[in-house]
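Hey, I'm writing a tutorial for new members on how sequence and structure tokens pair up, and I'd like a real worked example in the thread rather than a made-up one. If someone can provide the structure for the chain below, I'll link this post from the tutorial.
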Amino acid sequence: MLTHLAATLLALTWPAETSADSSKTVRVNVDTARSEVVVTVGPLHVPAGTPYSHHTPETRLQFRWPVSGWVRGYRIDLIDSAGNILPREMLHHAGVANLDRRQLPYPKVERLFAVGRETTPVVLPNSMGVPLDSNQRMALYFGVVNTTNRAIEGASLRLSMVWTANDGARPRDVFVLFLDANPGFGSSSAFDIPPGRSITTGEFTLPISGRVRALGGHLHDHAVEVRLEDVESGAVLAQLRARRDADGRIRSVSRARFILTRGGLRLHANRRYRVVAVYENLTSATIPNGGMAFMAGPFAPDNAQRWPLIDPSDSNYQRDLASITELEQHAGGHGVYRGPNRSSP
């Protein structure tokens, strides 16, 4: 009780930021006792009879990061009007993008994290963290569903992020390495899933070398796995498997921890790598935009000063930024498939 009271008294509440949708407000609180930044969005109206599908309406809102330091983890929950945590099944997807830093493999804004119903909370050790400066621009996006016959009023989405303040021992800088099997620019990263087994791939190179400490992933129903391959050698560097029900419904995705490799999995600059998504559609019909596959994890660059800067004139960056900062609701970021390589063996 005393710990909770102290946390409440020491929490610093930052001014609320209202989105273009005046019915929703973003509240950003800095809890110094718990070392958390808590972002809350609400009130939310979740209509009845909205099933988990891959065309879920998405809400996008912006806020400013309040403190300088390092983010080390996150947890995201849906809360009802009484403060109770709602079933995880209601969270279709959610994520946060840092609009002031670009991704390493692609000229797109940095995705700090992206989660689905199968994603569990993530916390990095005290020795590392993702650096963020106060006042950096953030975009929060999410989609919720409700398969019951009762609408939910007054709900909220609560994002709690563990952070280390910039006032003591400095953790090692790591950055989020985001690898996508279909990295569209301004369009969806979703792709069609034909009946039977299919493979979707996307290749990339990195401008700087470094080490990946661990990798998690996000997949949709009917997924089998997503893996990282070295194109030149054909070696499988990481393999994340989906745990599925008998009907293909995804329950969880494994993670890769490179504990036997000192410092993590080494990736080399200018070397070709490939993200491979494997799906097995158990139905007899193609599922439009039904697939998605990405991997993400902390990346320690050999030289953080050489991290590529945002080029505001880059047309791919402009399209990606526009797709993340549009404040109106739209259909889930799952647009027309424009994927690179897909095959049905």
